[in-house]
Design a protein that fits this description.
Shape: globular
Structural class: alpha/beta
Order of helices and strands: EEEEHEEHEHHEEHEEEEHH
Number of strands: 13
Number of domains: 2
CATH architecture of the largest domain: 3-Layer(aba) Sandwich
Largest sheet: 10 strands, mixed
Low-confidence stretches: 1-9
Mean pLDDT: 90
CATH topology of the largest domain: Rossmann fold
Distance between the termini: 68 Å
CATH class of the largest domain: Alpha Beta
Number of helices: 7
Strand content: 25-35%
Helix content: 25-40%
């Protein structure tokens, strides 16, 4: 392992561990939360044609990686992902890129399907169960997780888009209820919901569009941003009005993120 030396610089400073020419040191300052909404990792799911892609198109310096046709009517930077191999090569490009700030994966469901097909092909099977002993499923999980983690660690914001569905859930008491969630497969859901900072449901309430960012037993949604998404009176925002255009939707999303929305219960 080479020569290892431990050096205490000062009584109240962090120790330094030197291994060869590399030095390791514990952090001395707290990290600062990202101040740009587009710099976070998000999962936005909702009804088809509600405007998920259009909303994401307003984010500055955004690049769309399309696994399905969806950007023909938009003036955006985009690439069509015809295979999982092409996607992983673009992930490598993005690690070195300085132009784009937010990457949109549309849809995350089809991204996982591409990974599924790629790994099965490499294993020479039609279905992961055919590999035996869970090796197929394990290989898919490993490949998908590695590529997604590489992307989200590239210093950019990432938005995953998915659709919605209603599923019947039985709680611990045996009571069944309907929950609105995304259409991701179990493995993809476990991977993405574990890394996203914000997972939101884009839906209608009557004829109005809203982005729900806090969930309940009947809705999958939430976020990890303790200092964000609060009304001007400091109470937490559960849903954001998205207006009648993608520009208005983006503007309200930013206002909510910056704690500049007024509480409608107070302003009425």
């Amino acid at each position: 392992m080479g020569n290892v030396n431990k050096v205490i610089i000062k009584k109240k400073s962090s120790p330094v561990l030197k291994v060869g020419k590399i030095e390791y040191k514990l952090p001395e300052n707290k990290s600062v939360p990202v101040e740009n909404l587009g710099g976070y990792v998000m999962l936005i799911y909702g009804a088809k044609k509600i405007g998920k892609t259009s909303l994401c198109s307003i984010f500055p310096n955004a690049l769309f990686l399309f696994f399905e046709s969806g950007g023909k009517a938009l003036r955006i930077y985009q690439e069509t992902m015809t295979s999982w191999r092409k996607f992983t090569r673009f992930v490598e490009l993005l690690k070195r890129d300085k132009r784009f700030d937010t990457i949109i994966i549309d849809t995350a469901d089809l991204a996982y399907d591409c990974c599924f097909e790629e790994v099965c092909g490499l294993l020479g099977v039609e279905h992961p169960a055919d590999a035996g002993w869970g090796k197929g499923w394990s290989a898919i999980r490993k490949e998908f997780t590695f590529a997604i983690n590489t992307l989200t660690n590239a210093g950019k914001g990432v938005i995953f888009i998915s659709h919605e569905k209603d599923v019947e859930i039985e709680d611990r008491e045996g009571v069944k209820h309907i929950t609105t969630t995304n259409t991701l497969s179990r493995q993809a859901k476990e991977c993405l919901e574990g890394i996203v900072d914000i997972w939101a449901n884009y839906s209608y309430e009557g004829d109005k569009r809203v982005l729900k960012i806090l969930g309940s037993e009947s809705l999958d949604a939430g976020h990890r941003l303790k200092e964000r998404f609060r009304y001007t009176d400091k109470t937490r925002i559960r849903k954001i009005p998205m207006g009648r255009s993608e520009e208005e939707a983006y503007e309200n999303f930013i206002k909510a993120f910056n704690n500049k929305l007024e509480n409608p219960k107070i302003t009425k």
